Amino acid sequence: MLMPNLNYAQLKDSYLFAHISKRIASYLKEHPGTRLLRMGIGDVSLPLCDEVIRALHSAVEDQAHAETFHGYMPECGAPFLREAIADHYGKRKIQLSPDEVFVSSGASDELGDILDLFESRSVVQVLEPAYPAYVDANTMAGRTILHLNSGEDNGFLPEPDESVRPDLIYLCSPNNPTGAVFNRDQLQRWIDYANAIGAVLLFDAAYEAFIEDPTCPRSIFELSGARTCAIEICSLSKTAGFTGTRLGYTVIPRELNRYGMNLNQMWVRNRTTKTNGVSYIIQKGASAVFTERGQQQIQANLSYYKENAGILMKALDELGIRYYGGKNAPYIWLRCPGNKTSWDFFEELLENIQVIGTPGAGFGACGEGYFRLSSFASRDDTQEASKRLLAYFSGQTSGAK
Ligand code: MLT
Q1: Distance CA 212, CA 205 (A)
Q2: Is the pLDDT of residue 235 over 80?
Q3: Which end of the chain is more exposed for a tag (fewer CB within 10 A), N or C?
Q4: What is the chain's alpha carbon radius of gyration, rounded to the nearest angstrom?
Q5: How far apart are CA 88 and CA 291, in angstroms?
Q6: Which CATH number is correct for 50-291, 3.40.640.10, 3.40.50.300, 2.40.10.10, 3.40.1710.10?
Q7: Residue 242 neighbours by CB under 8 Å, 6+ apart
Q8: Ligand 1 within 6 A of 219 CB?
């Protein structure tokens, strides 16, 4: 009899965001027509910027004519996009060769796919609270997972634990879900530790575009020693509104070797075997993000989400609810008032004010008692959510901060 991958038996019934979607669908079935304010999954609400739309239209037109038509794309990414991304790093004084940049169909896809490079016996360390796909994808592969908890005492930015020797370490900065951002010294300590023990850092930089503080690196390759220990996974989802359009990129330096094998070359081997690349049209749209006008236009959208975060933070300040993030990051991580569990708080907000957030327990055991709000909703919904929060909690939370 065929034996399926028995590691799936170790997973929770459903993935965090799928579980929440199911709960919302059942709520809407019982309360049809309710206006829900979705501050849960980090899905953008603004359309793609004009520069990207123009490039997408023009690429569609290219596909209509024999002279400009494109069939299969290079598996690791179109040269025009790999070069545009390498130049973009170059403007920030990070020298990359285009062949160190791999175009992907999105960071979440890539975070799962990249695990092909590592033995199923390798030991993975996840700094929690964490994006739940890190744990789920490694559970599917049967890897041993070390959970390194963080909390308010260390600002949700844990230091390396010298007593363990993981092979693969996930870092996410700005962090999803806490919004915490590593400064240069903190990130350097992780790089030095990884180099000392021969580990590889998987640096999830999906939210780098939200960083304003110049003391916080937007790329791990701003720091010395990263080229021998880090892989950086980036996304246009939140940076440029590509959640539904899908495009990301991954940087694997040429110097990244383990056991005499070169991880950049291994990824070329993997991609040329397992994908036929990302669509020409989408890669053209993505390349517009890296033009001067594209960069200006995406900044306008990022500012809109930052202002949304400001609106939510103001309401929490008025209510005296303690929170983290919201600055240099699109997520606000709040302490559930009244010491409620995060799922109880989720239900309370859903039932009483129809505001959706994400329960902290979904990001690891140490997320219990916390709740995540996203700043990616529309301005109207964000203002309405903050009004409802203020009206509902006024009087309940004074002194909670
Ligand atoms: C989140 O809400 O954590 C993210 O939007 C999910 C994702 O990027 O897949």
Answers
A1: 14
A2: yes
A3: N
A4: 21
A5: 9
A6: 3.40.640.10
A7: 48, 106, 235, 236, 286
A8: no
Q: Is residue 178 lining ligand 1, measured as CB closer than 6 Å?
A: no
Domain boundaries, the chain: 12-41+294-393, 50-291
Distances (CA, A) of 143 to 47, 115, 138, 181, 217: 39, 10, 5, 27, 30
Is the pLDDT at 18 greater than 80? The verdict is yes
Q: Is the pLDDT of residue 165 over 90?
A: yes
Does the Cβ of 268 fall within 6 Å of ligand 1?
Answer: no
Instruction: Answer yes or no: is the C-beta of 42 below 6 A from any ligand 1 atom.
Output: yes
383 CA distance to ligand 1 middle (Å) = 22
Residue carrying the six token digits 């400001």? 310
Confidence of residue 13 (pLDDT cuts 50, 70, 90): confident
Angle, helix 79-91 to helix 280-289, in steps of 10 degrees: 20
176 Cβ below 6 A of ligand 1:
yes
For 167-211, the pLDDT digits (tens) are 999 999 999 999 999 999 999 999 999 999 999 999 999 999 999
Q: Is the pLDDT of residue 116 over 90?
A: yes
CATH code of 12-41+294-393, in short, is 3.90.1150.10
pTM, full prediction: 0.96
Q: Which pLDDT band holds residue 15 (cuts at 50, 70, 90)?
A: confident
Same topology between domain 12-41+294-393 and domain 50-291: no
Which residue's entry shows tokens 């900044």? 299
Question: Cα–Cα distance between 306 and 308 in angstroms, integer?
Answer: 5
Ligand 1: which of 16, 17, 374 to mutate, judged by most atoms within 8 Å of the beta carbon? 17
